[in-house]
Amino acid sequence: MPEINYGRLLDEKLRELEKNGEKPSLLLHACCAPCSSHTLDFLNRRFEITLYFCNPNIAPEEEYDFRLSELKRLVQEMKLDVKIVEETYDPTSFTELAKGLEALPERGERCRKCIACRLKKAGEKAKELKCDYFTTTLTISPHKDCKFINECGAEISAECGVAYLFSDFKKHDGYKHSIELSRQYNLYRQNYCGCIYSKINSQKENK
Ligand code: SF4
Fold first, then answer.
1. I want to staple 122 with a disulfide (CB 3.0 to 4.6 A). Which of 23, 29, 84, 113 is the partner?
2. Where do runs of H (alpha helix) occur along the chain?
């Protein structure tokens, strides 16, 4: 079967909304400020956005707090009329989910579970807040499996009844633009994905 071009699906959806003069509500799961920078810039004119910070994977807690504070600063400095909904930090839920998978490399089963758990929460939150769509900033990362993220989003959409906005935010030089915006806003760009296992891996690689 040919690969689905998720960037093109997003472009088609945006054209359709523009043609119909619609600006629907969107719950945008945000993993961090750098990944949110281009994504917000790209989507802000087309959607009423609520950012959803739900990342129990991030460790240690100071790192979690700092990534969240950077996201808040970004929204303020970009002068966006965007609300941020913070999920209660629950690192034990991630530790449970990652049990037995700690030593796996990135893009393996631990990451699939980590992404699926955050997307599920995003779908549920979108339903609770009566949003028209939900999606995640995660597809901007060249290190993440874009196909998996989108397939997972579609499955959760079928369960929660909220439309999933397919995406590949790397398209239109999105990743490059996120680096430029990170420089412009002097954002903290972490050198590991989020969990303690990715931090250990990154430290090993740096050695
Ligand atoms: S490496 Fe990233 S995606 Fe994978 S489990 Fe850790 S935090 Fe989640």
1. 29
2. 6-19, 33-43, 61-77, 91-97, 109-128, 146-160, 174-184, 196-206
